[in-house]
Each structure stands twice: as structure tokens, then as C-alpha cells.
Amino acid sequence: MKVLDGWKVVRQCWGNRGFKSALDHGAVHIYSFRKFVKPMKGCGPFAVFKTKLAAVRFRDGNQMVVKCKYVKSSEGNLYYYSEGIKLRLWFDIPAGTVLASKVKLVRRLYG
Fold it and tell me: DSSP per residue over the chain, as a string?
């Protein structure tokens, strides 16, 4: 299990006590600065940017760019389950994105 450096675009939530993905389709994952977070049961991998530049270009409005540590996923697309049916997310994944099996936030950069 190789831990890599990456960048995550997130939004603060729940009175600044947590961070969730900038785009949340399906289940909402709460990311942490203290520990690695894995996808919830029935959800696919996380989307992480390989470079700071790709994350900054994607960032919009009230979102922030955060440096992260991640483990690359062996899965090939984003998905979640709804009522027992696997639903693939059909939007185009932004350039510079990799899929991760777990993520830990490290340092806030912009936002």
C-alpha cells in the first residue's frame, strides 16, 4: 500500500467541523485531517487531483484546495449504490484526477 501526495477540493460543513467533497453525488463523505477515510459501504472510490494546478483550476467559489495523502484505487470509475442498484457517475472526471481507496487531508492551501 503506497501512500501518495495529492490534492482534494472540498467544502466546509457542519459548523466547520468537517469537510466534504466539492461535488457530492449520492452519499456524502466527511474527510478528516487526523485519519484516513475510506468510502462508505456501497460507494466507489474518491476523486483526488494529482497536481495542485489541476485542483486550483477546478476550485470554484466557496470551495477550498487541501493537500492530501491517498492510496490509489484499483477501481476504474466513480459510483454509489441506491436501493441496491449500482449507479455509475456519468459526468466527465476533470483532467488530472486519480481515484483513491482512502484519503487523509494534510494541509489547507486555498479557500
Answer: --EEEEEEEEEEETTTTEEEESS--SSPPEE-SSS-B-PPTTB-PEEEESSHHHHHHH--TT-EEEEEEEEE-S--S-EEEETTEEEE--SPPPTTEEEEEEEEEEEEEE-
Q: What are phi and psi of 53, to 5 degrees?
A: -60, -45
Amino acid identity at 1? M
Domain count, the chain: 1
- Local confidence pLDDT in tens for the 111 residues of the chain: 899 999 999 887 766 567 777 666 555 678 888 899 998 877 788 899 999 999 999 888 788 899 999 999 998 877 766 777 776 665 677 888 999 999 999 987 765
The answer to whether the beta carbons of residues 55 and 68 sit under 8 Å apart is no
